[in-house]
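tool_log.txt
---
The assistant was asked to compare two proteins side by side. It first ran the structure predictor on the initial sequence, then on the second. Raw inputs and outputs are pasted verbatim so the downstream comparison step can read them without reformatting.
(1)
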Amino acid sequence: MPGLLHAVRDAQYETPTPIQAQAIPIVLGGNDVLACAQTGTGKTAAFLLPILQRLTQGERGGVRALVLTPTRELAAQIAEDAHIYSKHLRIRTAVAFGGVGLGPQITQLQRGADLLIATPGRLLDHLERGTVTLSSLTVLVLDEADRMLDMGFLPDVRRILRTVPTLRQTLLFSATMPKEIEHLAHETLRSPTVITIGRKATPVATVRQVLYAVEAERKRDLLCYLLRHGDMRQVLVFTRTKLRADRLTKSLAQSGRRVAVLHGGKSQGARTQALDGFRRGGVDVLVATDLAARGLDVDGISHVVNFDVPNVPEDYVHRIGRTARASATGDAISLVSSDEVDFVHEIERVIGGAIPRQVVKGFEPGADTIRRFERPAVSRSARIASGAIRHFAPRGHGNRRSA
C-alpha cells in the first residue's frame, strides 16, 4: 500500500519491533490475535498499520474497526498515531472519550468514521444515545486489556461485545495476562494466534534500574538533589495519590523546575495541556499518578522516578516502561523508605531478580531502614540469568556509596 508505506517512511520507521514483525502478517491474514508484550515494544503500530491497510481495501459504510482502550490519554495517543499513519489514505478516524462534551464527538461520528478509538464508558454513552452503531464492524481491538481490568471496565467491555457482530476479527493486546484476561480471551477470540514478547511482567532490558534508600520525609529533598546534580533531561515522576502529586508539583515549582501535574482530578483540558507541555519541552518534570503509567508515549523520557513505590509489581513494570521505549535506553529510579521495602521485595520476586541499591551521601537513612533494605534471598546466578541486575552509576549523581 503506497500511501501507508509513505507514512511509515515519514515517521522514520525502519525496522519493525518483534511484536510488529509477528503480529502484522497475522492481522493482515484476518486471524484473531492474543498478544502479550512488554510496554514500550510498539504494540500500537502492530495493530494499527495492518488495520488501516485492510480498511483501504473494503467498502465504506459505518464503523468498520474499533479500538477499545482504558484511558483518555491512550485513546488520544492512538488517534494521533492513526492520523499519522493514514495521512495519505482516505480513511476517516474518530475518537470518543469522557471528560469532554459529547457534541463535537457526535458531529464527528455523524460525518462518518471507518476507524473509531474509544474508551468503554463513553462508547456506551454513544451506543445508548444511538449516535453510533457497530453493525458494520469487522475488526475489534482490546488494547491494554489488563489495565481495563484494573480500572473496572470489564463489565462495560462485555456489554459492548454484545452489540458487535459475531463474525469479526478480534485482537487482544495486553502487557500482562492475569486469569481474568485469559478468561476474556477464551470468551472472545476464535482460535487465536498467541504472541508473547519477553517474559510476563518484566521490564525491557534497556531500562537501567536503581533503588535509593531514604527516609520518607526526605524524599522531596533527595529528588531535588538528583534533579540538580544528575543528567535528568525529561523526567516523569510517579506518586501514589493525587494529593501527593499536587504537593510535590508545588514544591518542585518553588525550587525553579518547569513542572506540570497529571492525574484524574484534573480537567481533560488541564491534562492535555500538561502532556503537550511535556512532549514539546516546555515542561521538563511531569508529576503523575498511575494514570500516566499506560498510554503515555513521549519520545525522549530520560528518567522515570518512583517517588512512591507501587504496591503492585505490575504497576512498577508499567511505570518504568515509559522510558527506554522503542529500543532506546533510560533510567528508572525508586526512592524507597522503610515502609516500602516489602513492596520492593515483591517487585523483585515478580521480575525475577534484585535491583541495585544505592544511598546518596547526606541522605543516609537510619540503621533500621538499611537493615530492612537488604536484598532478599535471591542467588546471584539467578539474578544474572534473569537479566534484572544491571549495575550502573546514574550519570552525574555524585557522592554515593552502596547500601
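(2)
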Amino acid sequence: MCLGIPGEVIELLADQPDLARVDVSGVKRVINIGLLADDPPHPGEWVLIHVGFALSKIDEAEAATALQFLEGIGQAYADELAALQESRIE
C-alpha cells in the first residue's frame, strides 16, 4: 500500500529552492517541493508527501483528518513513517 502523508513545512532551504524541511508526526526530513513550483508552500503550511515529494498543499484541518485516519490504520502508517525516516533528499 502506498500512502500520502501530511507534513508541516517548517523551513525552506535557501540554497536549494526545490527542498523544504517538514515535520511529519515528529519526524523531520527534507523533501522535494519542486512539483509545487506554481504555488510553493511556506513555513506553517501543510503538504501531502509521498516518497519524499510534496504532491499537493492541504489545509491544517485536512492534515489533521488524514493523520487521524493514518493512525487508525496502524501498520501501513508505521511503514510509511519508517520509509520517510530512511529517505534522504540532499
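---
observation on (2): The radius of gyration is 12 Å. The chain has one domain: 5-86.
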